[in-house]
Amino acid sequence: MERRIVITGIGAVAPGKPGAKEYWELISNGRTATRTISSFDPAPYRSRVAAECDFDPFTAGLGRQEVRRMDRATQFAVAAAREAVADSGLDLPADDPATVGVSLGNAVGCTTSMEREYAVLSNEGADWLVDHRYAVPHLYDHFVPSSIAAELARLVGAQGPVALVSDGCTSGLDAIGHGADLIREGSVDVVISGGTDAPISPITLACFDAIKATTPRNDDPEHASRPFDATRNGLVLGEGAAVLVLEELEHARRRGAQIYAEVAGVGTRCNAYHMTGLRSDGTEMADAITQALTEARLTPESVDYVNAHGSSTKQNDRHETAAFKTALGRHAYDVPISSVKSMIGHSLGAIGALELVACVLAMREGLVPPTANLHEPDPVCDLDYVPLRAREARVDNVLSVGSGFGGFQTAVVLARPEREAA
Amino acid sequence: MSADGGVRTVVTGVGVAAPNGIGAEAYWAATLAGRSGIAPTTRYDAAGYPLRLAGEVPAFDPEQHIPSRLIPQTDHGTRLSLYAADEALRDSALDPARLAPYGMGVATASSMGGFEFGQRELQNLWSKGGRFVSAYQSFAWFYAVNTGQISIRHGLKGSSNTVVTDAAGGLDALGNARRQIRKGTTAMLSGGVDGALCPLGVAGQLSSGAMSTGDRADRAFLPFADDAPGQVPGEGGAFLVLEDAASAQRRGARDYGELAGYAATFDPGPPPPGGAATGLVRAIRGALRDAGMAAADVDVVFADAAGVPDLDRAESQALGEVFGPGGVPVTAPKSMTGRLFAGGASLDLATALLALRDGVIPHTANVSRPGKGHPIDLVTREPREADLRSALVVARGRGGFNAAAVVRRDV
Amino acid sequence: MSDARATVTELTVEDLTRIMRESAGEDESIDLDGDILDSAFTDLGYDSLALLETTGRIARDYGVELSDDILDGIETPREFLTAVNQSLAAA
């Protein structure tokens, strides 16, 4: 019999206050967490706003040693994982730790620590031949982000397959897909999955400035991320982590676990076109959606809510609108679609997982989060993007999509678990 | 139905960029001849560092192998990746354009991404300012870069991904590729070509405390030796074309063998003194079970071969536990390349396939015999001829990552 | 390098070709030394990323910043040179 995968626990560190409940509070009310960057002086940069987490590692329960050792992205992941595991009611470490795995998404590693340590070792950029004698003992772990997945594995006592999935901005979704694969093939029964990134650092600002990906709307941070709006002019960088506990359905049922949703289908494609550019027709994303729906054995018409990538760049929102029309047909015009990036920005390898947490809560609460700041719809983006205010709706089946540098296109379908196995 | 869904995955193409040879056959010839690629670092002035040796890929002229348009936007490691991927695809004689539109994808592994490119742009930012940072930095250093560039170069639109599990990644990428094939993708271009031989990368490697600090290239990296002095970093690796066996058969493709078994596990801490790493034992047994084989069916083991006494002992104990003391020939041709991070295990698997093809086990260079307390039959001094049907490849990554894979040829 | 160029008052097509080669390489099937002034950059094998890298280099070396609005409208080397040289003349 086919092994089905369900979500039994969620945890989040999103811009604003940490915690899944706080995250939902923010986005269900259409509030945004974007502000002028506070962690360093952003004055030299073209784009100077970001959606930051008000995260204190000590409040989150991390010890002094852990804070010293762990990059901010690792800290986010650990905090989100603790919340998710507690929420799932799982007793970890499990009796057989080999039945537990980790699949964590992350796009840009331990950027903040890497850059900080670079500055020290290079004498603030003066030396190509950096002085290794000033290195912190765990420098290697800041350079090779498998360290983040390893920290999670030790935290939850996972001894099955452990991996960091790094597919740019689809990492968070792809990590869920990989985790689901591990359970379906029988390698493990439980996967601690999700995504984390803490990219708000000078080098990230500089490289996004150079390609004009981020918005220059610095005078009005709250309204800077404007997916599908005619006046959108770039993405707002974000940060954070979300962890979802994935579990084999019978395993979850046997222990009487709460079940949020089934991971019913995952589709991934590459556009093989450009490292940063997108063709306007959205063909490959459309195919990823079709693949995910096929795997979920659902029709386009059965999708009740679409959580868009909606990054607020000119090209993405157009690309994605075209993909929805191709994959969902007429239904693309009827189904509510929204982008939470309007409120929490784009946290690269974390965002896919944060968006899935939003989807899970939309299903539970019967409420579709809005696209904030959507005042003047772009005529090219002519679908129902749920502007400004959340909308009540029965949500049984959700589609969430992502698109990333490198050409990655991913679609995930979540469904109510009580539906009959086909 | 079995876990593989009735789909067998075979290797139909191999491409290599290694410190002792560019191209699979050049590398293989060098390996059998015992020619090492470990030598004094030339990429930068290493005189002031305690690590002055490296396995650099020699004389790689990007202009000769890579389209001009890609050169300004790629790290050295991505150029080597593009070379190896291109060679693997040519070797397979598979034309992706003849497959279904999403019939082929890319699965790679990375450790530090395009790190030398990254160091240069960090220097531009910190010494001159944000305006001096390249428009390519946004993707040239990140971990998914090789997957993306290879996908674009060859028009591969199928499910693709990138894994970071330190040096276990070279097998985990291939495991991911096989998953995609089992789910219906016809073929995958997969593997790892990795390395960060720039000052910042080497500073990171030095912080691991595992590096070899001597100056003699033939005494610096001695896996399983009593006096193993540590690791030498290298760059390079291999890409392979993995293909649904039915597709390979239909088009009459030659195959090197089947990726018959794979498993990954995690060890949360070091093994007890003198004991085997339990997670590593589970990974090896898992890969054998996945291949439907017993330990006695394995003809040769390509070891992770850390070159660090404790880690070597944990591996040799694990091999002893699974195969019995001296129960199977064990080798570490990476003694001639250094540790290639996420590229090393992909290269080991390619090497294993070449060994199966030619019936010869390449030796572990510079080690005359395994040290005391290593219950293994280490192939040393010269290649050993043998009738080989299957090989086990073992890989470990810093922090507790283990992976094992079994390749097998039809007989 | 940027100091030496600060006095340059005109960007020539040869300058542009050289900078593009350095910033973005060149498509093997295209002769950049031929008559390219009115060819679309896309036909010359250069995408938006290549133009961003090129304009970044020109901004640093010549002190010329082209606004997004101007850049969006540029499709050929002639239009690009005109925009840069107008800006240089105004400086």
UniProtKB/TrEMBL annotation, chain A:
Statement: the UniProt record of this protein carries the keyword Cytoplasm: no
A Gene Ontology molecular function term of the record: 3-oxoacyl-[acyl-carrier-protein] synthase activity
SUPFAM superfamilies xref list: Thiolase-like
GO cellular component: cytosol
Keyword Transferase set for record: yes
GO biological process: fatty acid elongation
Keyword field: Acyltransferase, Transferase
Gene3D superfamilies the UniProt entry points to: 3.40.47.10
Domain of life: Bacteria
Location of the Ketosynthase family 3 (KS3) domain: 2-416
PANTHER family referenced in this protein's UniProt entry, alphabetically: 3-OXOACYL-[ACYL-CARRIER-PROTEIN] SYNTHASE, MITOCHONDRIAL (PTHR11712:SF336), POLYKETIDE SYNTHASE-RELATED (PTHR11712)
Family of this protein: Belongs to the thiolase-like superfamily. Beta-ketoacyl-ACP synthases family.
Name of the protein in question: Actinorhodin polyketide putative beta-ketoacyl synthase 1
Native species: Streptomyces pilosus
Lineage of origin: Bacteria, Bacillati, Actinomycetota, Actinomycetes, Kitasatosporales
UniProtKB/TrEMBL annotation, chain B:
Organism field: Streptomyces pilosus
GO MF annotation, one: 3-oxoacyl-[acyl-carrier-protein] synthase activity
Keywords: Acyltransferase, Transferase
Domain Ketosynthase family 3 (KS3) stretches: 6-409
PANTHER family: POLYKETIDE BETA-KETOACYL SYNTHASE 2-RELATED, POLYKETIDE SYNTHASE-RELATED
Alphabetized SUPFAM superfamilies for the sequence: Thiolase-like (SSF53901)
Protein name from the UniProt record: Beta-ketoacyl synthase 2
Pfam family for this entry, one: ketoacyl-synt
SMART domains attached to this UniProt entry: PKS_KS (SM00825)
GO biological process: fatty acid biosynthetic process
TrEMBL record, chain C:
SUPFAM superfamilies: ACP-like
TM ranges: none
UniProt xrefs under InterPro entries: ACP-like_sf, PP-bd_ACP, Ppantetheine_attach_site
Pfam families from the UniProt entry: PP-binding
Keyword tags: Phosphopantetheine, Phosphoprotein
Domain Carrier: 10-88
Matches recorded under PROSITE patterns: CARRIER, PHOSPHOPANTETHEINE
The protein's name in its UniProt record: Actinorhodin polyketide synthase acyl carrier protein
The species this protein was found in: Streptomyces pilosus
Organism phylogeny: Bacteria, Bacillati, Actinomycetota, Actinomycetes, Kitasatosporales
